[in-house]
Amino acid sequence: MRIDIVHPGADKLRYEIREIVEVANRIAALGTSIVWENIGDPVAKGEAVPEWIRNIVGEAVRENHSYAYSPTKGVAETRAYIAKERNLEGGIKITPDDILFFNGLGDAITKIYSNLHPRARVIGPNPAYPTHSSAEAAHAGAPHLTYRLDPERGWEPDLDDLEQKIKTHRDIAGIIIINPDNPTGFVYPQATIRRIVAIARRYQLFLISDEIYSNLAYEGSGMQKLASVIGDVPGIAMRGISKEFPWPGARAGWVEFYNRDKNAVFDRYARSLLHAKMLEVCSTTLPQQVLPQVMSDSRYYPYLAERTARYARRSARATAAFGAVPKLIAHPAHGAFYQTVVFKKDALNDRQTLSLSPEAAALIEPHIAHATFDQRFVYYLLAATGVCVVPLSVGFNSDRDGFRMTLLEPDEAQFDKTITTIVSAARTYLASNN
Fold first, then answer.
1. What average pLDDT does this structure show over 358-386?
2. What is the pTM (predicted TM-score) of this model?
3. Which domains does the chain have, with CATH numbers?
4. Which of 56, 146, 394, 428 has its CA 20 to 30 A from that of 355?
5. What pLDDT score does 138 carry?
């Protein structure tokens, strides 16, 4: 090419959650059954969408207008419903005009970062969700800036670390929280969110709260949405239906803007997101149309409570099993449907192995030659047992070694078998260089 056509941030785009699938498919071709624990798709994992939800969608499909464009901001009745429900929860009040729909939160995340001023940075948690960290890093053409979630303290964020980095990096304009967190399942206590809001106010920053799992917080978790504590600080909350209904293929998510009227620069930024969406005309119509009917149904929240109770029980069993391995750290999730396990410092090295067939060893060899320690473990685990999890380091932009699996397996016996398999492999792997 006469000039370089590649964006400077292109190499920052990484999604190990799906990239490992290619390797897993090659392992499967050798005759190994794969246990897919890499991606949080409840439907693919076997959870059934309730028939009453499918009936609502089915009725809407028969309506001719469900095939039309929606307004750019989103279906007016749906935005009005969301605003009303948000205002009933207490905290800051919003109007339907403070809501903007996207084709899933992946679309929202891309536009949120790509429409920032080129110098403006947004700092997020470590471990990070890769869609956020990759999009922010690609926007900046530099590594994503993070503050620590501390596995030794139940994943509580290190707010001293956060504030110090804000002081050091004067281009930081915003803070991300993911609540409930992916990958850790941590739910931010209200007092912690208030401290983060205070930091944002002190340094004149805006906040982003990814709340895609907010209605999948477990009973007793203390989950509080950003709107309840944000006060006068500019902010964006992100929500969607992909994990709740669950309907990941719908690609329907929205953002809620807070305090646009209190900051002219933030208001201009919010309008730029709307203008960017106008270039695409609108987001998917059908899921927006059915959202109020599904969420207002008397069966909806009991259905979510049943699901989260199952996830909580599975996380408790997984935490007990992984916690029995001396060199592992595991905490019970309090929301979402993930279990994250961390290796204690210095537990891993590049001499540890699991017994593999020659064919499997040859297949993963190119991937472990320059792998991080936890990535190396994950590939050995996949090749030896067929269990496909995601390493924390490259998968979640983490400076701690570990892995994430899901809590979605509907067959409880299979779930327990998977945990037993990982625990046994981890014990063997950790002991293999002694």
1. 92
2. 0.91
3. 10-47+301-431 (3.90.1150.10), 67-295 (3.40.640.10)
4. 394
5. 87
